[in-house]
Specification:
Layout lengths: L3 E3 L1 H11 L10 H8 L2 E2 L9 H10 L5 H9 L5 E3 L2 E3 L4 H9 L5 H9 L1 H14 L2 E2 L21 H11 L4 E6 L2 E5 L14 H16 L1 E2 L18 E5 L6 E3 L12 E3 L5 H4 L1 H8 L21 E5 L2 E11 L4 E9 L5 H18 L2 E3 L1
Parallel strand pairs: 1-9, 14-15
Antiparallel strand pairs: 2-4, 3-4, 5-7, 6-7, 8-10, 9-10, 11-12, 12-13, 13-14
């Protein structure tokens, strides 16, 4: 079968539609997470936590963050894993990818040496769970070696390693602290067990459904990869090198764009190379840069208008004054009057959702 030949406009619209950022807006929180496959959990909240911003970008100011907490911690229609919120349907493949793949030699040796520690945790959770990590004794045999912040954080390291392999689960939160429990008390009882090959195939298919168009492979990146293997069908996009994989269900669909402000961790712009190749959009999260080295701001929100990424909003929340402070709107292209009005409307909606006033 010959590759599909797509214009950049077509490729962008596929990516935007896959991420539920076209019109009309979706209305169901759980369905949105199902479609996106992941919500990244990040503690930075210059405006709001990233997971909430991602959902607000799709659902608008009707989105209530307590609904997400309820879906994860009470209804169990969603599940928190290490660093992400996901649909429970994805858990078997997500777990199998870690459980059945070779571990890094350092991690493998540390887990092997600390097998008694792992068993201690399981026995304690069975008896007393759910528990915060601070309530779980460190009975490690060998300390976790690291030159970074995880050095000797043995309980957290073991819990996360066990969670990634499906041996424990995150059952809820107390602020930023996580409650841990046995997975059978948290996850649905009828989850299947899948092998590694099946897991890789399912994950690639689900990822492509969320991204719409993506590369098969590429450089290794931290976190959830943006690559989809041989899922979907081959495509060529004008003005870009090599080939892509496209989800065939998204080909030829009508497109109605809208304006949206995006989290810096939004999956539409997470793969910076894809963003540049399809959208001509340059973006770097500058929160770790010195103030005088920033071009767009500490936590600048990418601006989507129609099928283009057109700028960045530099804004923060002043919680004392209860205001959304707009420091700048950086225009990558000259805004028309229509674009300006649409961006201002989104800023007003963001402030209303936050229960704040706009200060400029």
């Amino acid at each position: 079968m010959a590759p599909h030949r797509l214009t950049k406009d077509e490729a962008r619209r596929i990516a935007i539609h896959a991420q539920a950022l076209d019109a009309p807006r979706p209305t169901d929180l759980v369905a949105v997470v199902e479609r996106l496959t992941i919500l990244q959990i990040d503690p930075t909240a210059a405006i709001a936590p990233s997971a909430d911003l991602v959902l607000w970008s799709r659902l608008g100011s009707t989105y209530d963050p307590t609904e997400l907490t309820r879906a994860v911690e009470s209804d169990r229609r969603l599940a928190e894993t290490v660093a992400y919120i996901r649909s429970p349907r994805d858990l078997p493949a997500v777990i199998a990818e870690v459980r059945d793949a070779p571990a890094h030699p350092t991690t493998e040796a540390w887990l092997r040496d600390n097998e008694p520690f792992r068993r201690d945790i399981l026995a304690l959770l069975e008896k007393s769970g759910p528990l915060l990590s601070r309530d779980i004794p460190d009975t490690s045999v060998v300390a976790w070696p690291s030159s970074g912040w995880t050095n000797n954080r043995n309980v957290t390291k073991m819990l996360e390693a066990m969670a990634l392999r499906g041996q424990v689960a995150i059952s809820g939160r107390k602020g930023r602290q996580r409650y841990w429990d046995l997975p059978e008390r948290v996850y649905p009882a009828d989850l299947p067990v899948v092998d590694l090959d099946t897991a890789v195939r399912l994950r690639n298919e689900r990822r492509l459904a969320a991204l719409g168009i993506a590369r098969a492979t590429g450089p290794q990146l931290p976190g959830e990869p943006p690559y989809v293997g041989d899922a979907g069908e081959e495509a060529v996009v004008e003005g870009t090198p090599g080939t892509w994989r496209v989800h065939p269900a998204y080909l030829g669909l009508p497109f109605e764009g809208r304006t949206a402000l995006l989290s810096p961790f939004d999956r539409l712009i997470h793969d910076r190379v894809r963003s540049e190749q399809l959208f001509g959009f340059e973006y770097i999260l500058e929160m770790y840069k010195p103030r005088d080295k920033r071009r767009w701001g500490y936590f600048a929100l990418p601006v989507l208008h129609g099928d283009q990424l057109v700028g960045k909003l530099d804004a923060t929340v002043d919680r004392r004054a209860n205001t959304l402070v707009v420091n700048a709107v950086h225009e990558d292209v000259r805004f028309t009057a229509t674009m300006t009005a649409a961006v201002r409307a989104e800023i007003a909606d963001l402030a209303a959702w936050l229960g704040a006033e706009v200060a400029q």
